[in-house]
């Protein structure tokens, strides 16, 4: 049996691979460095396009890619998103939903594409007892398309008012935290404590406010409400599926003046909101539990 390595150059990629690695019966090494001495006779599974390129350069020839997000695509051929270019040597794709799986299968008909859910969901902690907390999460300023640009600028002037009404903590995409522009600096100026670890967000927060990130679905999967931030750059006449505009897991906000009322409404978490959240989650996650074992079984068969 060929051993299976995992390779994750960033912590949020490792968060998706570690649960799978623990379930692998014939596991090789878990690499978390750009420069590694790898046994390339092993198969390898990665969770990003950048790591596909890294393991290819290392000399691996048997490569699997697992999705580290929701499987969003933006109608481009960018390799970071579902159905993207430069994956001809990837022979297995492990996806959270049929939307992303279908895009990869169409782009690479000879590859094996499997829908497994998201292994990270198996590891998310529950809310720990404590005072009410509202968490913020913003995407990084990725200018691939308008929908990948952070909404922070659009909402920054309402944050002091929000902080006066609620205990806040700040989170964001790892690339947004370090910037530029740096969410870490932006939160410090707004006197909002930064929590970089998403597990801590899940432990501490009762509600999550987010613009565009798979973390909104991950938080929603724990049964708690989400507020979804739109901004003027997000085009309503362009449909990318999932977040834009088919799987909205919470109360939508379009303008800063709507945010406080939206938070109050979302905290009520009335049955219609719960139904909307469940409908969005059903599109993003074909399975809500057992993804790590499901992925490990497929990797064993593939390898």
And the CATH topology of the largest domain? Rossmann fold
Separate helix tally: 12
H-E string: EHEEHEEHEEHHEHHHEHEEHHH
Q: What is the number of domains?
A: 2
Q: What is the number of beta strands?
A: 11
What is the average per-residue confidence, as pLDDT, rounded to a whole number? 96
% residues in beta strands: 15-25%
Strand order of the largest sheet: 2-1-3-4-5-6
Index terms:
six-stranded parallel sheet, five-stranded parallel sheet, alpha/beta, Rossmann fold, 16% strand, globular, 12 helices
Question: Overview of this structure, please?
Answer:
With 303 residues, this protein is of the alpha/beta class. The chain has 2 domains: 4-118 and 287-302; 123-284, Rossmann fold (3-Layer(aba) Sandwich), CATH 3.40.50. 35% of the residues lie in helices and 16% in strands. The protein is built from 12 helices and 11 strands. It has helices spanning 11-23, 49-58, 98-107, 152-155, 159-165, 174-178, 183-189, 198-204, 214-220, 259-268, 271-284, 291-302; strands at residues 4-7, 27-31, 43-46, 63-66, 90-95, 112-115, 134-138, 168-172, 207-210, 226-229, 251-253. The strands form 2 sheets. The chain has a 6-stranded parallel beta sheet, with helices on both faces. A 5-stranded parallel beta sheet has the order 8-7-9-10-11, with helices on both faces. Strand 5, helix 3 and strand 6 form a beta-alpha-beta unit. Helix 1 packs across helix 12. The radius of gyration is 19 Å and the shape is globular. The model has no long low-confidence stretch (mean pLDDT 96).
